[in-house]
Amino acid sequence: MVSRLALIALVAGLFLGGTYYITKEPIAEQERMQAQQARQEVLPAAEDFEKLDMQNDAGIEEIYAGKANGGIVGYTVKLTSKGYGGDIVMTVGVNEEGVTGVKINSHSETPGLGAKADAPIFMNQYVGKAPEAFNVAKGAASGDDDILAISGATITSRAVTDGVNTVLELYRSELEGGQ
């Protein structure tokens, strides 16, 4: 009885290991393609991207310089912010004119509430603006630096806004003027 169980466990383990080995590279390639697509979406003026080797501990995972016609046209930053339901992974594009785009790559926010954060009506509030910092406003936005919160999802709205503010601060302190 024990030997049969051991044989079944061995066979199952071999199948699992084989499946992992076969699918590991296609999954990694798919993740690379999605990351490239997110960078292109938030910084459409860039023709190609060069990864920068910068140390940062503010939840920032990757920083890329977007290039076109031999020069830098902006930067994309992939970072993680803490939302209501867990981590919100986003990519933010920025250049000298301000935020060029924001894309949420993944989240675990509440469906119907915080999950609305990736809707264009919310994300487009950041585009084309370059305040010192964005503020989350409930009810009505009174200025260019105000972001109208998603109704019932203020924590999510603040998490996304904090992420965008982190990128603006990084841009001003370390990236502005090229690297």
Automatic annotation (TrEMBL):
Boundaries of every FMN-binding domain copy: 83-171
Primary location recorded for the protein, binned into one broad class: membrane
Entries under SMART domains matching the protein: FMN_bind
Cofactor: FMN
GO biological process terms held by the UniProt record: electron transport chain
EC number, as in UniProt: 7.-.-.-
Keywords, in A-Z order: Cell membrane, Electron transport, Flavoprotein, FMN, Membrane, Phosphoprotein, Translocase, Transmembrane, Transmembrane helix, Transport
InterPro entries: FMN-bd, Ion_transpt_RnfG/RsxG
Source domain of life: Bacteria
An example molecular function term from Gene Ontology annotations: electron transfer activity
Pfam families the record matches: FMN_bind (PF04205)
Location(s), subcellular: Cell membrane
Membrane topology: Single-pass membrane protein
Quaternary state and interactors: The complex is composed of six subunits: RnfA, RnfB, RnfC, RnfD, RnfE and RnfG.
Family: Belongs to the RnfG family.
HAMAP family hit by this protein: RsxG_RnfG
Full protein name: Ion-translocating oxidoreductase complex subunit G
Native source species: Gehongia tenuis
Phylogenetic lineage: Bacteria, Bacillati, Bacillota, Clostridia, Christensenellales
Gene encoding the protein: rnfG
